[in-house]
Write a structure and sequence with these properties.
UPF0339_domain; YegP-like_sf; 4-stranded mixed beta sheet; 7 strands; DUF1508; 112 residues; DUF1508 domain-containing protein; alpha+beta; 2 helices; PH-domain like
Length: 112
Amino acid sequence: MNFPKFIIKKSTNDQFYFNLWSKDEAIILKSEMYTTKQNCKNGIESVKTNVPSDKNYDRKTSDNSKYYFVLKSQNNGQVIGTSNMYPSTSDRDSAIERVKIDVPKAETEDLS
């Protein structure tokens, strides 16, 4: 499997979601649940559209002092992806930079 890559899967409740896998084969962005596969694919396109702009990222700290980011749509502010937790702000910020670089060349694989 080539990375980076969006992978579409189907959940046990028949909804669809995607994960963005990085070059080092780690999940760096997770989607919300979608009721249709087409909406899931639209979510991937929204990620591709919104990743270049730094203003679309909310840098956050969890209750257990881990760091993560949320990618939002520039058009409506809707959350389109949430990252994993990182031990430091520099790790989180490096992940954001990887997303900006990886997403334009990411393929999509449908495993649903």
